[in-house]
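Retro notes (design track)

What went well: tokenization of the new backbones is finally stable.
What didn't: we kept losing track of which sequence belonged to which structure.
Fix going forward: every design gets posted as structure first, then sequence, in one message. First example under the new rule, 309 residues:
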């Protein structure tokens, strides 16, 4: 994922959520709708999440230090994980609490036209934000399905924004359902049901985000296709007979560590081995530009040979 594409999607979502949050709180004040209040808190949580993603992207750009010799690229994973925690604790827990509280209340909705007007405005704004996230994601996901893109993306920002925007749109639909049923039936319980549906939705999205960002935090290797490119580049070097074994690790979305033990010829001199390693590193960087940290250990090929006859 390009950093500019992720930033563009984050800013679009931030602008949409800030404007929507204000409108939702105004509607909640005039209508007394718990669904609208829950959606207002949802938008505030989303806005905070976008700020966290921007902070993570900025901090990840810091250079290497003695304490962090591989840099700070994985800060983007940390802040994406914090987003999942915030979405669950603030968005989901509050909405579920407010929904159960509203179930025991007999207060009906007042001035429902406020709720309908704000929900329509919010759906349009969220659709614009979601469209931006889809457009930026399509530029990098290739032929992957959307599920595969969310699960395999090494850059966390676009998957996070995609799921947040999807959750926001579904949440608005749930709120519209709750408010509409409460107005049609005159029963405020429907508003509470809509609030509970929003809370459960946010909890599910938060859990999905937590699982995926946890995997990135723990450390993921290169995608299979990228590993095949690295192997081909190494074994295509004249001084490398074969790759004995190899490990890869993402130090950040755009920085990959490659460590490999390579077999060299028995009669190669130290100078020839050193030259071969330099050439192999150059080939890897040309094939996979994000392979910025490469460690190659030369060894002799001790694979047993078989003789016929």
């Amino acid at each position: 994922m390009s950093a500019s594409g992720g930033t563009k999607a984050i800013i679009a979502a931030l602008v949409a959520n800030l404007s929507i949050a204000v409108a939702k709180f105004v509607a909640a004040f005039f209508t007394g709708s718990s669904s609208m209040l829950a959606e207002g808190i949802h938008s505030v949580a989303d806005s905070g999440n976008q700020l966290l993603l921007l902070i993570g992207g900025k901090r990840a750009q810091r250079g290497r230090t003695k304490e962090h010799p591989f840099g700070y690229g994985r800060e983007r994973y940390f802040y994406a994980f914090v987003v999942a925690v915030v979405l669950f604790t603030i968005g989901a827990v509050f909405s579920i609490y407010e929904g159960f509280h509203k179930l025991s209340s007999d207060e009906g909705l007042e001035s429902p036209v406020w709720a309908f007007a704000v929900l329509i405005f919010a759906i349009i704004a969220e659709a614009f934000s979601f469209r931006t996230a889809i457009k930026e994601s399509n530029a990098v996901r290739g032929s992957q399905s959307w599920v595969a893109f969310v699960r395999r993306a090494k850059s966390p920002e676009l998957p996070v924004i995609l799921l947040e925007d999807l959750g926001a749109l579904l949440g608005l639909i749930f709120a519209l359902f709750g408010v509409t049923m409460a107005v049609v039936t005159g029963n405020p319980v429907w508003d509470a049901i809509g609030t509970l549906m929003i809370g459960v939705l946010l909890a599910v999205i938060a859990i999905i985000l937590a699982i995926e960002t946890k995997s990135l935090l723990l450390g993921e290797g290169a995608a299979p296709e990228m590993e095949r490119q690295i192997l081909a580049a190494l074994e295509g070097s004249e001084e490398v007979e074969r790759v004995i074994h190899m490990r890869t690790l993402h130090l950040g979305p755009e920085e990959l560590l490659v460590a490999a033990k390579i077999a060299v010829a028995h009669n190669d001199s130290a100078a020839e081995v050193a030259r071969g390693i330099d050439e192999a590193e150059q080939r890897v960087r040309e094939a996979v530009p994000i392979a910025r940290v490469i460690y190659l250990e030369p060894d002799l090929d001790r694979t047993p040979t078989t003789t016929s006859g």
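Added context from the reviewer: The chain is about 70% helix and 10% strand.
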